Amino acid sequence: MKPCDLLLFGALGDLSRRKLIPSLYQLEKAGFIAPETAIVGVAREEVTDEGFVVQARENLGTFMKEAVDAAVWERFARRLRFAKVDLSQPDQYGRVREKVDQSLRETVGYCAVAPALFGPICRGLAAAGLATDRARVVLEKPIGTDLASSRAINDAVGAVFPERQVYRIDHYLGKETVLNLLALRFANSLFTTNWDHNTIDHVQITVAEEVGIEGRWGYFDASGQLRDMVQNHLLQILTLVAIEPPTALDGDSIRDEKLKVLRALRPITRDNVEETTVRGQYAAGFFQGRQVPGYLGEEGCNPGSTTETFAAMRVDIDNWRWAGVPFYLRTGKRLAAKRSEVVVHFKNLPHNIFQASYRTLPANRLIIRLQPDEGVEIEMLNKVPGLGKGVRLQRSTLDLSFTEAFKSARIPDAYERLLLEAMQANQTLFIRRDEVEQAWTWIDSIQEAWRALHEPPKPYPAGSWGPVASTALLSRDGREWSE
Ligand code: BG6
Q: Which of 177, 306, 362, 440 has the highest CB neighbour count under 10 A?
């Protein structure tokens, strides 16, 4: 355990309350926080150290499923301090310095605030003498809204901290099942050979959400599902499915390979955007038996908004391994179920010896359930036992459910892992500047093509699987979504 002080910028905000404070408590419980470490909440509100402790305790009660352990809480509460700082004012950061260990000065500054404040926070840390070469700064997404704005943010941060001290979060990289993609691919010889255009027909990546916009209208409407979800989470999942074997598990080996995949994504432009993408927006509908409003009926909405709440696309990776293997991505709000998964469809057999009974045989599928009900399934055909003429085949599933297989293990929240990795100065699970900028380059081109099309998003009823056009996207290629 590396001793360092943790500075939580935006300590009273939603992310801190829901995720960061509970995750830090879990790290405390598991004994992963060094005894010397202080946790300093920083925000502009007038709050005392004691007031911050009271708020943190309330957060745990509200946002944790389990009961708070008195002894763990006592240890945790002793670490908590608060510094009142207007984050845009560099001269106020001296108040943060007063709360950290003066001899140590090894800080992890977690920016759980709007990206416009990332630069000012870094400058404030420098002004207070806290931007030492052992300090680290953690940046929440979104890093900008396009390439130009992400560069501006990265430049502002980079003016104070070199890249090796910058930790950009994509919380999907902290999820157990997303990390398991690396284990699945690089710890199993079965998949070292069966993982390219020779054996795989296509890959589907779905990140479906049940939630609507609920109170986040302002942020979401300016962003949309493409920038909010595809630019980061879906592209990160795609890169882990598609990367070449890295030479090691360290930060740059994996990130170098991810970058190569991002660079190989075929651009989607005005010429191919219509046949490769679908934009949707949820309309009113029924969800779990109750009537729910459409996007344009949500509180605080802009009634004329054409922001997409659903995006689906065919992505081609122009490299040796994936030539001719489309990756279909889809993600949306207010869909029929919360379900994130990667489905790998293997190719049909070259020759069918069971032709007498079955004209065609369904191909094998590997289903990686990212959430909920985390697990891995392989669908395969087996002979149904029995005598008689011909062979009867049946599709059955080898199903590995994580909760059953690893009964004793609690699945940690993504933020627990990412906070721990940042405190331990391990950059592997964080996004490098070139990665984030390459992802924006690819996304910007889609965004531009959509703008040029001038078409409103296609409506879909809340509680469905998205617009009909999403089904058509695959049926044009003779395929269908796995439901
Ligand atoms: C966030 C997006 O990054 O991820 C949200 O901004 C989205 O819009 C969320 O709801 C989904 O995360 P999870 O972990 O619930 O799948």
A: 440
